[in-house]
Specification:
By secondary structure, this protein is α/β, with parallel strands linked by helices. The protein has 13 helices and 8 strands. The two termini are 16 Å apart. The structure holds adenosine-5'-triphosphate and magnesium ion (MG).
Length: 296
């Protein structure tokens, strides 16, 4: 099977502006990763950011379903060598770009680590002027999830008020820090009943992480449990688009405002990274990346 790792980067890519990449992950399934990724991406678009939303969940893809889009090609086709990444691009509401995955296809966990890294590097061939990319991850702590989080500049860990959610979020943070050198995390509480609940969830995670891990957790905020969000899902629209005045939409706009204030990428960090070519010349050297050399 042709691997995206084999696709060379066009030289012109290095000249383009850096892209901020935000990965959304959780460990536990069903806590709201896709809802967060879709609405954060849409809120960033509303704020004037040219944004690409990447669905990496090949097992249960649903970014396209949530946005009512009909993909012709998906990430599964790219991995099978049937098309190039560029061919999967869909234009969503208000100019949001989407790279969809495909449900029920080969799961990311069936791909090799080399193919995950290859997929990350395939983004350098995308000829798309964007400021931000939001990456929706599958549940769990599989190698693919770790690679996509490591390859992003910021990782949002979504938690909700269930014991398994906090334990699984901790497990994700632990493997990302110990195995992939990711030490900074943004924690987002979802489906909370009030602000205090969100803060308590963060405090719980922060206490145990401070005790056993060398990481920094930031509290990004909380999204309320909101019936309007469910209605938006049924209408196959982002809630920030369908019901912009509802509580969850207001919270997503605030999260997007905070995310826009995060420091821009300064240069390559010396490991697998999305849009690395666009970072070269910003203060680093891509040739130093051993993983890249391994797959080149
Ligand atoms: N803040 C919220 N208020 C109300 N319902 C919510 C909220 N966040 C998520 N949901 C609902 O919870 C369900 C799961 O959400 P979502 O698909 O975003 O989770 P996920 O973490 O992406 O799941 P998976 O692990 O399967 O990918 C959806 O039906 C969604 O509508
Ligand atoms: Mg999901």
């Amino acid at each position: 099977m042709p691997s995206p790792a084999d696709i060379p980067a066009p030289v012109s890519a290095a000249a383009r502006a850096p892209v901020r990449v935000i990965a959304v992950a959780s460990g536990k399934g069903g806590v709201g990763k896709t809802s967060v990724a879709v609405n954060l991406a849409m809120a960033l678009v509303h704020a004037g950011q040219r944004t690409l939303l990447l669905d990496t969940d090949l097992g249960l893809a649903n970014v396209d379903v949530m946005l009512g889009l009909s993909p012709r090609f998906t990430l599964a086709d790219v991995l099978a060598g049937r098309c190039e990444l560029q061919d999967t691009l869909l234009e969503g509401p208000c100019g949001l770009w989407v790279v969809p995955a495909a449900s029920g296809k080969r799961h990311m966990t069936e791909l090799t680590p080399r193919e995950h890294v290859g997929l990350v590097h395939a983004f350098c061939q995308l000829d798309l002027p964007i400021d931000t990319m939001v990456v929706d991850n599958a549940a769990g702590i599989a190698d693919s999830v770790l690679t996509f989080c490591q390859a992003a500049q910021d990782v949002i860990v979504v938690v909700c008020d269930e014991p398994a959610s906090v334990t699984d979020a901790y497990a994700l943070i632990k493997v990302l820090s110990r195995e992939r050198g990711v030490t900074r995390f943004q924690v987002l509480a979802n489906q909370v009943h009030n602000h205090a609940e969100g803060r308590q969830l963060f405090d719980k995670l922060e206490r145990v992480s401070a005790r056993f891990l060398d990481v920094t957790l930031h509290y990004l905020g909380a999204i309320p449990r909101d019936e309007w969000l469910r209605r938006a899902v049924q209408r196959q629209e982002a809630v920030v688009e369908a019901f912009p005045g509802c509580p969850s939409a207001l919270a997503f706009r605030e999260i997007a405002r905070r995310a826009r204030q995060w420091q821009s990428p300064l240069g390559p960090r010396g490991h697998v990274e999305f849009f690395m070519e666009r970072l070269v010349g910003q203060g680093g050297n891509a040739e130093q990346d051993p993983l890249r050399s391994a797959v080149a």
